[in-house]
Design brief:
heterodimer; A: mainly alpha; Rhopdopsin 7-helix transmembrane proteins; 76% helix; 0% strand; B: mainly alpha; 73% helix
Chain lengths: 292, 108
């Protein structure tokens, strides 16, 4: 197709895989970068522990930057991939979900830093976060529907059952405590909606990972995407559980999970950009290197 | 051979269901691994092998779709449906079913 069929074994757009790993080299670079950024984030948070206001500003801004980074990469995919085919549609939905979540993060930052008033709950930010689950769900379920013929028999039942058991034990406790603490249905609904929607996203994310895990390319974005959804889901559930059971406690520690979740999402999107969208300039570079 | 050209065209159509830029990226990756994208030199066995390396078990989705479309095409263009059904064992992996149709075409 490109007239450069012969003699390029081992040199691809994804970087050269080594004998030791079937994954492209840059995948390990991304993992190291995520771990380093998370470690730095934790270190700065520890240093700012005494200064609550600076800590809040740093936390909110870091999460906003991570979410913005992921959104930029998602927008780049939509721009390069266009809307055709499975990836065109599903990544456009992903970008729409990330836009909603990014705006929600900005609104939350405004509530926490920009005003003197107490942060309302539920707020507009919660509405945006909950709306964001729709496009994310579309991305995951439509991709899973495409690949589901390759799923191992019974694995869907197993993953669904496991997720139902784990989240099924959190939701009733949250409902019980929320209904004892709050009178209005809206608060109860929002407290329950987060873990329930997280659970709904976890099932296709894990299924996709199980289908593509043996693939050199397929596994790379799905390791990170599944990880991001699991991390955010765990944080949401734990946050909802603690705020329902101990509403007066200061909940600071969870921000690191959201920060890591967005970084993993950005990593997954970077991998998709690099592996699944043809880049003529990079292909030409590889070709020239090989023909020197 | 026309049949290989047809098979390559069907393969391209199936891959393009992911989107044109993704199809091009996959063809590039496959070509770096020695899978010729030239319709006359297209080797479906090599293609299947490399797709499994890229997508793991997910490659079966593409191979099943290629088989379904190729079978339909073969029934229209080269041979009887009955003739194909006689030699195809649906328990075989899609690559083996495709190869059976190819061998039947060669024999004919």
């Amino acid at each position: 197709m490109f007239g450069i069929d012969k003699g390029y074994s081992g040199n691809n757009l994804g970087g050269q895989p080594t004998e030791a790993s079937r994954f492209p080299v840059f995948f390990r670079v991304i993992i190291v970068a995520i771990i380093t950024l998370v470690a730095l984030y934790a270190l700065v948070k520890a240093m700012l522990y005494e200064d609550q206001y600076s800590l809040l500003v740093f936390t909110d801004l870091s999460i906003n930057v991570a979410a913005a980074g992921a959104l930029i990469l998602a927008s780049l995919i939509v721009y390069r991939q266009k809307l055709g085919g499975l990836h065109g549609k599903t990544y456009a939905a992903f970008a729409a979900g990330l836009t909603l979540w990014f705006v929600a993060e900005l609104v939350q930052t405004y509530y926490e830093i920009g005003t003197e008033d107490e942060v309302p709950f539920p707020s507009i930010a919660d509405a945006l976060w909950l709306l964001g689950y729709g496009p994310f769900g579309y991305h995951l379920f439509v991709t899973y529907r495409f690949f589901n013929r390759s799923a191992a028999p019974h694995s869907l039942v197993l993953v669904s059952a496991l997720t139902a058991v784990i989240f099924g034990s959190i939701v009733p406790v949250t409902i019980l405590h929320s209904s004892l603490l709050y009178d209005d249905l809206q608060t109860l609904f929002v407290n329950v909606a987060y873990p329930a929607l997280d659970a709904a996203l976890i099932v296709p994310a894990i299924m996709m990972f199980s289908i593509l895990r043996k693939g050199r390319f397929g596994a790379v974005p799905w390791v990170l995407l599944s990880a991001s959804i699991l991390i955010i889901a765990a944080a949401d559930s734990a946050f909802g559980y603690i705020s329902a059971t101990s509403p007066d406690s200061e909940i600071w520690g969870f921000s690191i999970f959201y920060f890591t979740g967005y970084l993993c999402m950005a990593g997954a999107l970077y991998c998709h950009n690099r592996l699944f969208i043809f880049n003529m300039a990079r292909a030409m570079k590889v070709w020239q290197r090989q023909n020197r | 051979m026309a049949v290989i050209k047809d098979l390559q065209a069907i393969t391209t159509k199936v891959l393009s269901s992911l989107g044109e830029p993704t199809m091009q990226a996959l063809y590039w990756e496959l070509s770096t691994q020695g899978v010729s994208t030239n319709p006359e030199e297209f080797d479906i066995k090599k293609f299947d092998h490399e797709m499994k390396k890229i997508f793991g078990d997910g490659a079966n989705v593409f191979m099943e779709e290629i088989y379904a479309r190729f079978k339909e095409h073969a029934e229209k263009e080269y041979m009887d449906k009955k003739q194909i059904d006689e030699i195809i064992d649906n328990n075989l992996p899609p690559i083996d079913r495709i190869l059976k149709i190819l061998s039947l075409k060669v024999t004919n």
